[in-house]
């Protein structure tokens, strides 16, 4: 059947620090490739050059307080009459459309895709969470007929946080671009000079990718270094923020090539080389719905250690294609790291299984899973009004 879908949010398809923007843009591009599916993207800023030629892209930069914005959205809605409207995160456009729904102007069923929550996303940056944003997120979620989220773990989190029946929440894990599986010649890549000091040293490399923060568990990882028998280097691809400096101040470690090395602002091709240079990847987060960096590391054939609070644990088989570690206990985490670093054969075997698992999560697969969700919602709505 033909399907007309609006995707509403922030969209960009370059490798970016804004994870949600990257995810939703990939989804838009892959949904548009499905036969008989018409996708209209309503976006507020963050448009990459590659998407400006996207024929159904509507860039709306006006404020929600501008009456012209309301008129434009209403006119567009009456013209296109979408079968379903899918919000990706919180935006002024989402608030506007929910309001129009309450006024009876918008008739289409609304689906909210939660790639994270305001609380977890802002907390990961070490910032105060404004209460009005939490209320706004709750209002948007409760005015949608269905919710998608990125892991079983996060579905349970949303259900508990907002009192939603888990049957109203479906899980669609994030995906990867196929280029993440391509072979990269790091020796010839001029973009990868920053990692030469890492490649030239003989220590095993433990990799962490993300903003150093309490919610990402960087403090646990640094403390675990103190219990390691192996002389390993912790490589952090993130930034030298105050939280990281505070964690190091509480230990004997310093920011240098002997203990902890930090790299910032790396392009995608360089990131592939970073993963290839590492021996293992670790993300000991206290709450992380579906971090793409874990899938990226798996795609590069690296064994990953994650905490039980990382949503991707549900697609991972412990000790087969990754490790779900006791990350709250730093001594136990250190023992797991030591055991892995001492067993090169296990690193290779688990890394290969991780790569095979990651191959199951391309964006083409994700787009088809979203389609199944849309069709299921429409089928349920027809039954309800029959």
What does this protein structure show overall?
By secondary structure, the chain is of the alpha/beta class. The protein folds into 2 domains: 197 residues, Glycogen Phosphorylase B (Rossmann fold); 181 residues, Rossmann fold, CATH 3.40.50.2000. It is 41% helix and 15% strand. It is built from 14 helices and 13 strands. The protein has a 7-stranded parallel sheet, sandwiched between helices. Helix 6 links the parallel strand 6 and strand 7. Helix 1 packs across helix 14, helix 8 crosses helix 12 and helix 11 crosses helix 13. The longest helix is centred in the last third of the chain and has 23 residues. It is elongated. The two termini are 19 Å apart. 44% of the residues are buried.
């Amino acid at each position: 059947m033909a399907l007309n879908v609006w995707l509403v949010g922030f969209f960009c398809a370059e490798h970016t620090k804004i994870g949600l923007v990257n995810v939703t843009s990939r989804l838009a591009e892959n949904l548009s490739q499905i036969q008989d599916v018409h996708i209209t993207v309503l976006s507020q800023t963050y448009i990459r050059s590659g998407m400006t030629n996207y024929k159904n892209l509507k860039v709306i930069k006006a404020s929600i307080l501008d009456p012209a914005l309301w008129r434009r959205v209403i006119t567009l809605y009456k013209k296109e009459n979408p079968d379903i409207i899918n919000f990706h995160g919180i935006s002024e456009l989402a608030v506007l459309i929910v309001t129009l729904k309450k006024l009876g102007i918008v008739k289409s069923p609304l689906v909210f895709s939660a790639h994270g929550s305001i609380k977890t996303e802002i907390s990961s940056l070490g910032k105060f969470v404004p209460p009005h944003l939490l209320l706004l997120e709750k209002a948007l979620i409760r005015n949608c007929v269905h919710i998608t989220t990125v892991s079983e773990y996060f579905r349970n989190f949303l259900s508990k946080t907002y009192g939603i029946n888990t049957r109203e929440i479906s899980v669609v894990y994030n995906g990867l671009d196929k280029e993440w599986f391509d072979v990269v010649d790091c020796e010839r890549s001029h973009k990868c000079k920053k990692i030469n000091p890492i490649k030239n040293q003989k220590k095993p490399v433990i990799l962490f990718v993300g903003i150093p923060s309490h919610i990402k568990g960087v403090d646990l990882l640094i403390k675990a270094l103190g219990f390691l028998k192996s002389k390993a280097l912790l490589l952090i691809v993130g930034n030298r923020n105050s939280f990281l400096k505070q964690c190091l101040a509480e230990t004997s470690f310093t920011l240098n090539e002997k203990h902890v090395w930090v790299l910032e602002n790396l392009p995608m091709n360089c990131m592939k080389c970073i993963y290839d240079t590492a021996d293992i990847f670790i993300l000991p987060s206290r709450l992380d719905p579906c971090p793409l960096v874990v899938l990226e590391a798996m795609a590069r054939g690296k064994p990953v250690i994650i905490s039980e609070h990382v949503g991707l644990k549900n697609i991972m088989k412990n000790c087969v294609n990754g490790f779900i570690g006791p990350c709250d206990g730093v001594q136990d985490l250190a023992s797991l790291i030591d055991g892995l670093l001492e067993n090169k054969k296990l690193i290779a075997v688990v890394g290969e299984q991780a790569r095979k698992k990651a191959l199951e999560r391309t964006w083409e697969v994700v787009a088809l899973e979203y389609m199944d969700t849309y069709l299921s919602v429409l089928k349920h709505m027809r039954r309800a009004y029959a």
